[in-house]
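Incident review: delayed structure delivery

Summary: a single-chain prediction request sat in the queue longer than the usual turnaround. Root cause was a stuck worker, restarted by the on-call engineer. No data loss occurred. The affected request and its eventual output are reproduced below so the record is complete for anyone auditing the incident later.

Affected input:
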Amino acid sequence: MKKRLLAILIACIPLAGWSQNVFTDFQDGKIWFQVKDDYRINAPLQEDPHHLPIGTLGFLNGISKNHQLTNLSRPFYAAKNSPILQRTFLLEFSDAANIMSVISELKATGNVVYAERVPLDHECLTPNDP
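Output delivered after worker restart:
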């Protein structure tokens, strides 16, 4: 009985990390935003586009004092021919319930073109072949 219960718990653990808690149509604690063309980005020479220092964008230091920022990344770093996508970032934070506050603070800096919640992808088609 104990082995079976342990197997069930282990099987459910990965699903717990992917569950949505705050919004049903948006990913919790994630915002896409684009930095204005005239803002200077302090990118390190050996950049890891998946884990950038928060100081890469200096205006995030003030926001990080109010919210628990966990990661900054460039999700479209491979789109080298698109200046717009090169200036688009993904900000992740743990206080997901305050997402609208984070968006407001990003816009208030005057350094971003837009800031928006990241949509949650849903299955829209289930194949009927094996």
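Verification: The radius of gyration is 18 Å.
Action items: add queue-age alerting; document worker restart procedure.
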